[in-house]
Amino acid sequence: MKAILGKKVGMTQIFDEEGNLIPVTVLEAGPCTVVDVRTEEKHGYNAVQLGFGFVNEGRLTKPQKGYFKSKGVAPTRYLREFRIEPGTEYKIGDQIKADVFKSGDYVDVTGTSLGKGFAGSVKRWNLKRGPTSHGSKHHRKPGSLQARDAARVWKGRKLPGHKGSERVTIRNLKVVDVDPEKNVLLVYGGVPGSRGSLVMIKEASR
Asked: CA torsion sign, 192 to 107 to 173 to 27?
């Protein structure tokens, strides 16, 4: 499993050799430090824990400082785990950079979608609105809850609430270009999240 942590820089567009315009998302991928390695014998599963991003040690708690000190690595802002296949060799302190991917690879990118605050059912769930005549008084309401004699609201109803700010994975994005010196990946299409937000990039699972 090839995986790396990164940061969304923003969107731009480039041209290929034939002159076609390609919309791409610029991702700052790594460098990531291997902070810990999970094994089947000791932890019950195989995974690698990656650290990414600079953090001032004054912002860390004592347990956090002790954890990084026990591993013998510099503190990082983010820690994430990625499952790996048995027999994959990683050592604490190894560096993973953007060159783990190459142009033409397909990746899955996971991020946190933009938060859009409190939204009604029409905007949040794309429900049909009511009649627009003057006497309707039912223009953008959610409608019947179909509760009958339950005297409560059934779970899972599409009602108004918080929209966005959810974990979203976009699958099978093509890596258009890689710049190992600047730790930059260019992927075709859009990626969830705002500029500067954390993203997890791993090889496509499908």
From this structure: positive
Q: Which residues contact 114 (CB under 8 A, 6 or more apart)?
A: 164, 165, 192, 193, 194
Tell me if the pTM is above 0.85.
no
151: which DSSP letter?
-
Banded model confidence at residue 9, pLDDT cuts 50, 70, 90:
very high
Residue pair 206/171 in contact (Cβ under 8 Å)? The answer is yes
Question: Which 3 state secondary structure label does DSSP give 64?
Answer: helix
Same domain, 105 and 198: yes
Determine the Cα–Cα distance for residues 169 and 167; give it in Å rounded to an integer: 7
Between vectors from CA 76 to CA 29 and to CA 51, what angle results, nearest 5°? 50
Residues 153 and 178 in one domain: no
b or e along 112-140 (b: 16 or more beta carbons within 10 Å of the residue's beta carbon)? beeeeeeebbbebeebeeeeeeeeeeeee
| CB atoms closer than 10 angstroms to residue 98 | 24
Residue 136: predicted pLDDT: 86
43 phi and psi angles, rounded to 5 deg: -115, -10
141 shares a domain with 79: no
Range of the domain at 140: 116-164
